[in-house]
Every structure is written in structure tokens, then in C-alpha cells.
Design brief:
With about 110 residues, the protein is mainly alpha-helical. Helix content is about 85%, strand content about 0%. It has one domain (about 5-110): 3 helical TM bundles of succinate and fumarate reductases (Up-down Bundle), CATH 1.20.1300.
Length: about 110
């Protein structure tokens, strides 16, 4: 049995999509009901532990979802092994760079409230 093939990536991609959908629905509801919230209150709200964990999980789900989708497309349509490795490596590098940048932003939001 292949570790990264078959039903397992499909299930992970669907679970990440469900979490992202639920998160965006809750976030849109909070945004719609946020009358008169200034930047400082938003920053404090985002930096609170439950919201911070939910946001971190959201971005983890986004990157997992994107990686599985990119991997499946590359495996289906690029048949040359070296080119496949190059495209997957570049995609992984780009996703990790974005994740690192988001981690820095989230950390700076959290650090500025301390």
C-alpha cells in the first residue's frame, strides 16, 4: 500500500475543505457583527489563544489542501520524473515560504499584545 496514494489524501483534502468552510463561515459572521471594532481590538481578538489556534489551523488546512491538490495534478499530468520532482520541489518551497511568512505575521500579532 502506498503511503501517499489512494483514499488517504482524498480524505485529508475533504477534511481540510470542511474546516476551511466552517472557519470562513464563523469568521464572516464575526466580521458582519463587528460594529465599531478598531484595529487594536481586532489585533487583540486575533491574538487571543482560541482564535489564534483556529487561525493557525485554518492556514495549516489551506497549505495541506493546496499541497495535496498540487501533488495530485503534478502526478497526473507530468510524466517525466525529473520534471515532476522539480515542480513538486518548487511547489513545496513556495508553500513553505508562504507558511513561514504567515507564521511570522501571526507571531508578531501575538507578540505585540504582550
Amino acid at each position: 500500500m502506498r503511503l501517499f496514494g489512494g483514499l488517504r489524501p482524498w480524505v485529508w483534502q475533504r477534511l481540510s475543505a470542511i474546516y476551511m468552510l466552517l472557519f470562513l463561515a464563523v469568521f464572516a459572521t464575526v466580521l458582519a457583527n463587528a460594529d465599531g471594532m478598531d484595529f487594536a481590538r481586532w489585533r487583540d481578538w486575533i491574538a487571543s489563544p482560541p482564535v489564534s489556534i483556529a487561525v493557525t489551523l485554518f492556514f495549516a488546512a489551506v497549505f495541506l489542501h493546496a499541497w495535496i491538490g498540487l501533488r495530485d495534478i503534478v502526478l497526473d499530468y507530468i510524466h517525466s520524473a525529473p520534471l515532476r520532482a522539480l515542480v513538486l520541489g518548487l511547489g513545496l518551497f513556495a508553500l513553505l515560504a508562504m507558511a513561514f511568512r504567515i507564521a511570522i505575521v501571526l507571531f508578531s500579532l501575538h507578540a505585540s499584545t504582550i
